[in-house]
Q: What sequence folds into this?
């Protein structure tokens, strides 16, 4: 346990400890005085050429980094490189240059317009704002002949501190030298979090008090607790880091299957978004797919794919886990996941609007065609009773109608527990369907009335909030009394300590990002079912998220490396 002064507390997004001197990311370039002077007409063509050359250089550099990176890093870098060369951005900037702006001033002004546009769109688009700011800074630096802004390349280990990180920064991070990352902004789904997860670098985001930490201060970062500590006793910190290193080594070699130390079975499943993701997940210790987010494959689809096309996509995911559990979720389009072919009116408050199963109000055929496609895919893959799950269910009638539509196609119906109404009346809902899966991301958002995409609300959108835990308990209890499977497929399942609490509450399956499975499995193997139950009872008595988290750590933390090695296979 850490018992020193906590300098900053945020949201821990990648578990692990790092102890090293702090180093801040370099600030963005500042426009020199006179950059806003009007460029004479005869020089404007050259100015445009200068801007185009800068874009080419910056996009080229980002593209080269994308080519050198792999996985999610390559994807986000590639997307940022594409954004740098975006035609709309080009048109807007060149128009400003033609009207007399300098290339630097036009870059800043055009980007400000795009940033405002993305912010207004909200959701996932708003998360790209950091990327746009990053491109602007790189372009301005290039135009001013300054070195690239961004992450320093240290020669010895550091804890990297930043306002927020852009993909171009994070994708080139070297885990051998960057022993931890802490940012003032960002949320659990920001690029910082995604890349840190991929690289396995302990990471804390949304840590508002970071600004008080100076370069060079020795920092102990705890990515599980979400804390950044200054002034830790060096020997004690080194011992904690050593214990954690043993844990991380054990995580790398963990193979599954999921169970507690005394052998209670816990299904550990993967969240995927397409066939490629499912095939990658099949290489992890995941024992199936607990959540296939079908809408994520359609975020840029202008037209609804035909039943046959959809069946092809769903088949790929079923084929990646032959004979194993695969839960296909019907379209959860809307709000932070706009799908172009799903048209519905502009809403004041899209998270509370027409999304998920509610889309059927305007277009009942959409769900019918998707269920037909799932049934076809199941037939093609020889899967009987394929599992299908509806998002955003709020009423028992919705659950009943969905179940009937599934059963008519010989599909096994389930619903997500994302709206508090379902958790409160869990028994009655579960009576209508075959299984339930708790979507803790939305359940937390709707219980706490806090936008899950808002970094400034990260303390509220925390599944350790006592009210959320009590609703989870209600849903879990319905599963036990109704003898039907109830699991979790929100981010909460990926938190090793929270996973133990969920098991202690009676949940039998946990579905998460594939790269989180091993850490959760290892943690579960280090505790008994009874320990999980007792910890769950203790946590339910807590009155704050921080107290709940600390209580669970206290009761479940395997304090010596041996705890990770003595598990009987
Ligand atoms: C959830 O809400 O917890 C969930 C798993 O669904 P999504 O994150 O796709 O909204
Ligand atoms: Mg959800």
A:
């Amino acid at each position: 346990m850490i018992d020193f002064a906590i300098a900053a507390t945020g949201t821990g997004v990648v578990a692990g400890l790092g102890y090293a001197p702090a180093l801040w990311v370099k600030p963005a370039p500042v426009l020199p005085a006179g950059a806003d002077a009007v460029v004479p007409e005869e020089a404007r063509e050259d100015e445009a050429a200068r801007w185009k050359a800068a874009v080419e250089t910056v996009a080229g550099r980002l593209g080269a980094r994308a080519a050198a990176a792999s996985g999610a890093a390559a994807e986000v870098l590639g997307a940022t490189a594409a954004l740098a060369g975006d035609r709309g951005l080009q048109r807007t900037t060149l128009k400003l240059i033609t009207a007399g702006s300098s290339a630097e001033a036009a870059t800043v002004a055009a980007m400000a317009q795009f940033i405002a546009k993305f912010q207004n769109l909200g959701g996932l688009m708003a998360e790209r704002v950091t990327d746009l700011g990053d491109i602007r800074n790189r372009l301005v630096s290039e135009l001013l002949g300054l070195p690239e802004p961004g992450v320093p390349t240290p020669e010895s280990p550091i804890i990297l501190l930043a306002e927020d990180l852009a993909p171009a920064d994070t994708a080139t991070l070297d885990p051998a030298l960057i022993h931890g990352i802490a940012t003032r902004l960002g949320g659990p789904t920001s690029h910082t979090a995604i890349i840190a997860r991929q690289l396995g670098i302990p990471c804390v985001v949304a840590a508002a008090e970071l600004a008080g930490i100076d370069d060079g201060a020795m920092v102990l970062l705890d990515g599980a607790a979400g804390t950044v500590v200054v002034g830790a006793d060096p020997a004690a910190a080194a011992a904690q880091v050593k214990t954690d290193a043993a844990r991380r080594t054990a995580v790398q070699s963990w193979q599954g299957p999921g169970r507690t130390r005394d052998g209670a079975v816990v299904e550990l499943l993967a969240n995927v978004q397409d066939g490629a993701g499912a095939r990658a997940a099949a290489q992890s210790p995941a024992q199936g797919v607990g959540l296939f987010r079908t809408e994520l494959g359609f975020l840029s689809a202008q037209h609804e794919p035909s039943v046959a096309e959809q069946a092809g996509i769903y088949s790929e995911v079923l084929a990646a886990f032959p004979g194993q559990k695969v839960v296909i979720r019907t379209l959860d389009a809307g709000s932070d996941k706009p799908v172009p072919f799903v048209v519905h009116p502009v809403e004041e408050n899209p998270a509370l609007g027409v999304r998920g199963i509610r889309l059927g109000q305007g277009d009942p055929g959409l769900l019918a065609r998707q269920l037909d496609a799932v049934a076809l895919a199941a037939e093609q893959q020889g899967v009987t009773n394929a599992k299908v799950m509806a998002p955003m269910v709020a009423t028992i009638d919705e659950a009943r109608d969905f179940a009937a539509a599934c059963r008519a196609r010989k599909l096994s119906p389930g619903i997500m527990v994302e709206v508090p109404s379902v958790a409160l009346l869990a028994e009655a809902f579960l009576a209508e369907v075959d299984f339930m899966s708790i979507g803790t991301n939305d359940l937390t958002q709707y219980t706490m009335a806090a936008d899950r995409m808002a970094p400034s609300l990260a303390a509220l959108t925390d599944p350790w909030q006592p009210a959320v835990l009590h609703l989870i308990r209600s849903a879990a209890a319905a599963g036990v009394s109704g003898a039907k499977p109830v699991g979790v497929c929100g981010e909460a399942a990926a938190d090793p300590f929270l996973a133990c609490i969920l098991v202690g509450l009676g949940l039998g399956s946990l579905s998460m990002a594939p790269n989180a499975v091993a850490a959760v499995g290892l943690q579960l193997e280090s505790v008994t079912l009874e320990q999980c139950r007792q910890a769950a009872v203790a946590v339910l008595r807590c009155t704050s998220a921080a107290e709940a988290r600390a209580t669970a750590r206290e009761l479940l933390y395997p304090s010596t490396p041996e705890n990770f090695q003595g598990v009987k296979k």
Summary: The first helix runs from residue 44 to 68. The CA atoms of residues 414 and 435 lie 5 Å apart.
